[in-house]
Amino acid sequence: GSQMIKELNDLLILASKRDGIDWTREYEIDDVKEKWGYLHWYASVPSCIYDEYTAWENKYETLSYNTCIECGAPADGHTTGWIVPVCSQCAKKHGWTLSQKKTGLEP
What we know:
Number of strands: 4
Oligomer: single chain
Number of helices: 4
Radius of gyration: 16 Å
Distance between the termini: 18 Å
Shape: elongated
Structural class: alpha+beta
């Protein structure tokens, strides 16, 4: 979490230098949630850093999709029903059924 926020702050500082607007004060997060097994982040993005921001966002979406939501280990699959990434140990511990090997946001 802290690395993610540091990288976001660095991007906002870069945007501030490019735009002349203090994006560290202007940037607002509209919503953050887990949906369909990965992080969703909704915010207005300064256009001058759109490509860098998109790469940052994709990095953390992919990381969240491939990380066990319970223990932080690499996920072995996703639960059925409410879709969340979990490792085999946590699935067994909680009695969750894993879907087939995860597909989609591969690192």
